[in-house]
Amino acid sequence: MYRASSKVTSAHNDGVWSTFWTSRDQILSGSVDEVVKSWDASSLEESQSLSVVKQYPGHVLGTISVVATKDGRRAATSSLDCQVRILNLETGGVEKTIDTGAGETWQIAYDPTDKFLVSGSQQGKVNIINIEQEKIVQSIAANGKFIVSVAYSPDGKLVACGGFDGVVAIFDVETGTEVQKYQDRTKPVRSVAFSPDGSFLLAASDDMHVKIYD
């Protein structure tokens, strides 16, 4: 059974919207207080405590989403200020600040190569961001509603999204065409995730249900 083995009181000055545990045992947290923090989790099992490694202020509005690369060296953050920032977790610096346009970035996720990010938008689009080029290179029209959750398939060929209207959709990245759509719920789908082999899609919603699609 899992239990609460550690607690950080007042980890941020406002609500915490996103967390991520990196492969290098750092915990990342993003908050409405406009700050992203990295925490050292390497000794968590022994000391049951977390210490702040670095704080990354700079977003003008609250941080929506924070994710890290597979090697744990870099992280990406998205914010209500319509910017995506690329953080270097080794140096503690900000490598890139990408302006995505009003309402064009909500939750983000890395592709398997860590060279692209997928993001949902308030305009009902799924956007592909080329990190090196620092811009959106592809926009896929989803269902016309606010896209609140996104995920890449393990092979990088598909992206899934969950909408505020409850619609779950899967798209082919290369062609931008819709592969599958599920319209069996009416409340926001806050999280989507592919299984490790890519054969199943998990979706969690405000309707209190978690569903697995194949």
Automatic annotation (TrEMBL):
Q: What InterPro entries is this protein classified in?
A: Quinoprotein_ADH-like_sf, SKI8, WD40/YVTN_repeat-like_dom_sf, WD40_repeat_CS, WD40_rpt
Q: Which domain of life is it from?
A: Eukaryota
SMART domains in the record: WD40
**SUPFAM superfamilies, per database record:** Quinoprotein alcohol dehydrogenase-like
> Mind naming one GO cellular-component term on file for this protein?
Cdc73/Paf1 complex
Its keywords, alphabetically, are: Repeat, WD repeat
Any single Pfam family the record assigns to this protein:
WD40
- Which spans of this chain does UniProt mark as WD repeats? 9-49, 140-181, 182-214
Family matches, as PANTHER family: SUPERKILLER COMPLEX PROTEIN 8 (PTHR44090:SF1), WD REPEAT-CONTAINING PROTEIN 61 (PTHR44090)
The protein's name? Anaphase-promoting complex subunit 4 WD40 domain-containing protein
